[in-house]
Amino acid sequence: MQFFLDVILPIPVERLFTYSITEEEAKFLKKGMRVAVPFGKAKIYTALAYSVHNNKPTAYEAKEIEAILDEAPVVTQQQLEHWQWISSYYMCTLGEVVRSGLPSGLLLESETLILPKQIENLEDTLLDDDEFLVVEALSNQSSLQIKDLIAILGKKTVLPVIQRLVAKDIVSLKEEIREKYSPKTSKYVKLNAAYEAEEKLEAVLTQLSRAPKQSKAILSYFQLFSETKKPIKESQLEKEGNVSKAVIRALVDKGIFDFYHVEEDRVSFGDKEKDIAAVTLNDLQQNALNTIIDTFNEHKISLLYGVTASGKTEVYLKLIATAIAKGQQVLYLLPEIALTTQLINRLKKYFGNKVAVYHSKYNSNERVEVWNNVLNQKDSAQVVIGARSALYLPFSNLGLLVIDEEHETSFKQFDPAPRYHARDAGIVLAQLHKADCLLGSATPSLESYFNAIKGKYGLAKIERRFGNVFMPTIELVDIKEATRKKRMNGHFSERLIKAMTEALEEKEQIILFQNRRGFAPIVECTTCGHAMQCPNCDVSLTYHQRRGQMRCHYCGYHVLQPKTCEACGNTTLDTKGFGTEQIEQELKAIFPSHNTARMDLDTTRGKHGYAKLIAAFENKEIDILVGTQMITKGLDFRNVGLVGIMNADTLLNFPDYRAHEKSFQLMVQVAGRAGRTHKRGNVLIQTYNPYHQILQQVSTYDYEKMFAEQVYEREQFNYPPAIRIVKITLKDRDYNKLNEAAEWFAASLRNSIRGQVLGPEYPAVARIRNEYLKNIIVKFPKKGSVHATKKSIKRIQQSFDAISRYRSVKVVYNVDHI
Ligand code: ADP
Ligand code: ZN
């Protein structure tokens, strides 16, 4: 009988692929183990074993697998079930989910470069024949690819050889492509077993009487050991024992000391824990907690709607403590940018070494380590705090999922596929594990609040700030008049400058919000009206004054700022609109004696840029901080007395059916950074349109009214949460082909699915990186299977893909959140 294995390849193909395996392999292989398989021309992929069977594929000759990479599954059944849900719900392939779900350290590919690390003066006895051949090849060549190794070794099972060489630290794999996991180790020193007996040791010391440094090193070692009663690190003996590396080395050469290596958990923290039981919740928090626990019994999902600084985090901490006590795993999910050291430290304070962080800023080794710790249900990863990709971790005993700032749009992944929403995928994950799920926000998304008042989720509220601090006052400042009468100082109204002066006199800090980076979004010629455009995208270039550049915020294209108009040659260039850079410049002129700083994508690019700015602001090295929406994300500053929103109108006028909901959330969240601890804070919102309903609702914190009006509008115009929606984007570099293809796609949709098909239409930016875009929006009927409709759409795509003329056209789906 023949045996076959179906695998999931980490690439965008719809189907599983079948490989032939031996009977022995068939017995050994389990779903969720990794195998290396050949695919396409001389490519090797890491794939996931899915099922073993005896059915020979009919369409193609099954190839043999290259190697089995695991002893036990690295992906669990529940994970695969969840990943399958993601793939079908978000209309992508399972392979795309695997690619985004597995940390890159667990994916090894044929494009991987194998580089020499320590190949000189290796003892041949350390290497087996295959390893020797690889090392020899690497002494002549600076790098090798997997296909080179297949040729050199004359066989296909090369991955195990690579893995052995990596483990021995002889070669490394190039990180940008795929890096193999290697645990971080520490080097320790111990006395060779032969010298453990006391008389032997004395003999050695006498023998070393002419090498005083070495005998002193031995004595230092004993002294450290008797003090700490712990294994001694080489670095420790060096520093605390005051012994040089050379002396230690000499003793190892003489066989008196031995080196050994111990794996170290690289994502570990200090150990001074505080008892969470010692934190007393106030009545409002306690009530909310009780409600949540009650509703968990009924719904398993609950929404905590607590105003900014009401102490939601402390409520989460109590729930986390309960889950830990039950021995369950906990996942605390946050938008990437809100995942600050501030919050991590707050968790560490109570749960110390049980807290692991899973984060895209961490390198692949660190992520694999957390992965393995979760897989093996280690204490060190009992509580995982992470951004959306932490959803992919191999939990087997998940008891609680907290999704903080659940309204945040950055929970949605836009590129690449899977284009999933981490809150929604998280809810499904929790249900799969029968775990409790808590959504938290000071400005809940319409969807979640809608579900809560419909009784689908439990609902708990905290309506006042912790410590009875008042919510900040919000004042709307009409700048229409002032602008007309030319009474603005740059973009600052007299009212704002006065409030700022007062706050600074009180030694309070100030946050200014402007949701645009750069100096000005448009540079226009006042003679001919020409504005500089990006050559690759259909947008105008943004002026960045400090660098003297015009930059495209879509593709990164940039040129030096011209002195004259490209079109007419006149020097009458003028800027329109304004960004954070311009505000910062004006600030320096208005408040020259105060420290100002700017927080946006341009100033936080470096690895620690963001954290440094937050720390400097916390330490009061900065008086006034100007920023984009980065400054809104759940930060807990203690001394901010005033928040200024420079211009509310650009937010409100954004062409998106969610613009009003988002503006409300954004402004209330920015306002929430003011006056969090003692004194009531102030917020000033500059606008041309102070009677706008959303601004009125923001200024009175009237979430309920905003909610009611927005839900009503969504129902009138058929948008979520009233109905379901999918946006299909077609992309191509050929303008005519794209138009034709989009018409074809839309016509087919109209023919075969129920519900409304809108478009095709160009989006606001109709060309990005030289690709033209067109959107088709499908609004699903209120009744009927969402799943079936998605399947019909996919079927249309299959026919579409079969048309050779459209082969180059990319089709992208965004589900629910468009
Ligand atoms: P939220 O998450 O709702 O914005 P936080 O949890 O950040 O609010 O709480 C705001 C501030 O109040 C924090 O500095 C926090 O330490 C403090 N705080 C909240 N609850 C308590 C409590 N029960 N005991 C002591 N301090 C608390
Ligand atoms: Zn561009």
Automatic annotation (TrEMBL):
HAMAP family linked to this entry: PriA
Binding-site positions, Zn(2+) 2: 534, 537, 552, 555
Catalytic reaction list: Couples ATP hydrolysis with the unwinding of duplex DNA by translocating in the 3'-5' direction; ATP + H2O = ADP + phosphate + H(+)
Gene Ontology terms: cellular component: primosome complex
Protein name in the entry: Replication restart protein PriA
Assembly notes: Component of the replication restart primosome.
A GO term for molecular function: 3'-5' DNA helicase activity
Residues of the Helicase ATP-binding domain: 293-462
Binding site for Zn(2+) 1: 525, 528, 565, 568
Gene Ontology process terms (BP): DNA recombination; DNA replication initiation; DNA replication, synthesis of primer; double-strand break repair
EC assignment: 5.6.2.4
Cofactor note: Binds 2 zinc ions per subunit.
Domain of life: Bacteria
Family in the record: Belongs to the helicase family. PriA subfamily.
Job of this protein: Initiates the restart of stalled replication forks, which reloads the replicative helicase on sites other than the origin of replication. Recognizes and binds to abandoned replication forks and remodels them to uncover a helicase loading site. Promotes assembly of the primosome at these replication forks.
Cofactor or coenzyme needed: Zn(2+)
Record's keyword annotation contains Nucleotide-binding: yes
Keywords attached to this entry: ATP-binding, DNA replication, DNA-binding, Helicase, Hydrolase, Isomerase, Metal-binding, Nucleotide-binding, Primosome, Zinc
Pfam family membership, one: PriA_3primeBD
